[in-house]
Design brief:
By secondary structure, the protein is an all-alpha fold. The protein contains four helices and no strands.
């Protein structure tokens, strides 16, 4: 029973460490997901989606005439 206070103190230290730890960014969390689940084939698909989204956003701005000349 003398172990109980030490276990509680260790749990409190672990909780405090988790609270003060910085949250990972969305990109680092996504890369960690790809690495842990061996889903590297998703990376090019996401990159293409982001590129197409960027082109759609830029297509409605003043940069549109310059984008259309690329195609």
């Amino acid at each position: 029973m003398s172990n109980q206070p030490n276990a509680t103190a260790d749990a409190n230290c672990e909780l405090a460490r988790k609270i003060t730890a910085a949250e990972p960014s969305l990109i680092s969390e996504f890369v960690a997901f790809l690495a842990n689940n061996k889903k590297w084939w998703l990376a090019p698909i996401i990159a293409i989606f982001l590129l197409v989204g960027l082109l759609v956003i830029l297509g409605g701005t003043g940069a549109a005439p310059f984008i259309y000349t690329l195609f």
